[in-house]
Write a structure and sequence with these properties.
The structure is a single chain. By secondary structure, the protein is mainly alpha-helical. The chain has 14 helices and no strands. The longest helix has 28 residues. The protein is globular.
Length: 310
């Protein structure tokens, strides 16, 4: 069963990276550059992704299992980020605050929205988006507060308001009542939301490909620090969380969705936030690129393990 699941998941990962390859090729040929991708990120992050999340919640069948799943997903997502933060605090203590903060950001925060969400949809279906949306909400809470605090070299103030006022959290806040109340949404509203939401996965991967196209592959495989960050992000944290979730009785699609999110490479916005907060965007790009390339090998194995636990 493990080998069968490994083949299936590896195929889905390959498909997603082939879509990313479109972004890679179009950037290299000048058709669609990284600068164009950056302009679309806000459209994706603030409009298309929230619509996809809200649509999933409002079309997901209400059941006691799904209600329990939401609560378990929140607990798992918070546990993963807290564990990642604790582990990161033990690393790179002798590095300057900004370099240390960039590494910590990449360790703690995965590419949940741009890679984990599309992968969860490919492997699990709408239920994957349902549970991963909860992870994305927690990701945003951490990214817009503690994440910015770390990557800015601990110079930016912690903005408590951003715990709620961010796209991922607001999407879940809007989606939850729709899930619980199960209103009869008119077709002329529901269907356009479905079409727009379906743009999330391919568009996210194409944009992701433009970032890979502009990465310095020589540098990213030359620094031992980046290898260590990739090991923590891609192997240590997801394997530890898989063991913890298993001991806590988490099983099935919830476990798979949480491990997909936990095993994803470093968040794409590591490089963008590094530039925004006067850190090192080139180093941020190298960390994201290396972990993304290596995740082609690590994610199928770890996610396949999650699908076969009893």
């Amino acid at each position: 069963m493990f080998l069968d699941n490994l083949k299936t998941i590896a195929l889905q990962v390959l498909i997603l990276y082939l879509i990313a390859g479109i972004g890679f090729v179009t950037d290299k040929t000048g058709i669609f550059k990284q600068s164009d991708g950056k302009r679309l990120i806000d459209l994706l992050f603030y409009t298309i992704l929230p619509i996809a999340i809200i649509h999933t919640f409002m079309t997901m069948e209400y059941s006691a299992e799904h209600v329990r799943g939401i609560l378990v997903a929140f607990a798992c997502a918070f546990a993963t980020h807290i564990f990642g933060a604790l582990v990161s605090m033990l690393t790179f203590r002798k590095k300057p605050l900004k370099e240390r903060g960039l590494y910590h950001y990449a360790m703690i925060l995965s590419n949940a929205a741009f890679l984990a969400l599309p992968m969860a949809k490919s492997i699990i279906g709408n239920e994957g988006i349902f549970y991963c949306s909860v992870y994305v909400a927690v990701f945003n809470m951490v990214a817009f507060t503690f994440g910015i605090y770390e990557i800015s070299g601990r110079q930016a103030k912690l903005d408590v308001k951003k715990l709620i006022f961010n796209p991922g959290t607001i999407s879940v806040i809007i989606g939850l009542p729709l899930f619980f109340l199960q209103p009869d949404i008119p077709y002329f509203i529901e269907y356009p939301m479905e079409i727009v939401g379906n743009c999330n996965s391919p568009l996210a991967m194409i944009i992701f490909g433009t970032f890979l196209a502009n990465s310095n592959f020589r540098n990213m495989f030359a620094k031992k620090e980046i290898y260590f960050v990739s090991f923590i992000r891609l192997i240590f944290i997801p394997v530890c969380m898989l063991g913890l979730f298993y001991l806590c009785g988490v099983r099935g699609n919830i476990l798979t969705a949480m491990i997909i999110s936990a095993s994803a490479p470093a968040a794409t916005n590591t490089a963008m936030y590094a530039a925004k907060y006067d850190n090192d965007p080139a180093l941020g790009s190298e960390v994201v690129a290396q972990s993304s390339v290596l995740s082609i090998l690590t994610m199928p194995v770890i996610v396949a393990l999650a699908t076969v636990v009893i």
